[in-house]
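> example.struct
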């Protein structure tokens, strides 16, 4: 029996493609789970330099309470604030590193966490950032969020040492591929939050991008190749 036009439409839809991709990823990951994972060794995040290009760490290491750690289930968490000599706008860096995703550990998308903290999204999309020494720009998520009168720019992505992914669906696909090809599922969520001064979201975005350019290569060295 030939499928109807409605079923043809579904099979060609974005939802169907995403669902197919997730099912394939789950199948590959299930196969990978039958082997003991060779966990890669990373350089501890707390050894990241306090001086990153023009940016210098301000204050002490950020504190993440145990309840939040229990929810995140990350093996390492880094949260710091940095200040640049080139702009008065500060930037907060948050990194959650997972040595494996086979035991229920996986990055939580910031777009799902922010509403629970009272922030609402007003703009979303992707931007390209040129990284010194990298042949092609990285594509990352950009969000403009608000809570009352306060606004912030949020940039985030999923990263292994050699790969940057904006889409969480693509990140899951790569996890399955890595489990099959390399017998590894390690990953990191990298997030930058910058306040918007006087409603100037462009200035905030420029500051956030400048920060990414300065910390990307030093942070990359902390992830296994």
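> example.seq
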């Amino acid at each position: 029996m030939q499928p109807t036009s409605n079923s043809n439409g579904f099979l060609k839809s974005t939802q169907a493609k995403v669902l197919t991709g997730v099912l394939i990823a789950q199948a590959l990951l299930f196969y990978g789970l039958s082997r003991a994972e060779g966990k890669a060794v990373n350089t501890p995040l707390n050894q990241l330099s306090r001086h990153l290009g023009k940016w210098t760490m301000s204050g002490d290491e950020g504190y993440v309470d145990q309840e939040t750690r229990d929810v995140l289930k990350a093996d390492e968490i880094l949260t710091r604030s940095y200040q640049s000599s080139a702009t008065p706008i500060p930037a907060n860096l948050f990194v959650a590193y997972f040595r494996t995703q086979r035991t229920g550990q996986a990055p939580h998308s910031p777009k799902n966490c922010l509403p629970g903290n009272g922030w609402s999204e007003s703009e979303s999309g992707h931007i390209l950032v040129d990284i010194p020494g990298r042949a092609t720009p990285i594509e990352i998520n950009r969000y403009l969020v608000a809570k009352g009168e306060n606004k912030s720019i949020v940039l985030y992505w999923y990263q292994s040492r050699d790969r940057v992914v904006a889409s969480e669906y693509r990140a899951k696909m790569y996890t399955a591929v890595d489990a099959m090809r390399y017998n590894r599922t390690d990953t990191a969520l990298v997030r930058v939050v910058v306040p918007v001064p006087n409603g100037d979201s462009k200035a905030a975005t420029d500051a956030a991008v400048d920060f990414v350019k300065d910390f990307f290569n030093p942070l990359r060295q902390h992830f296994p190749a």
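> remarks
The chain has one domain: 5-220.
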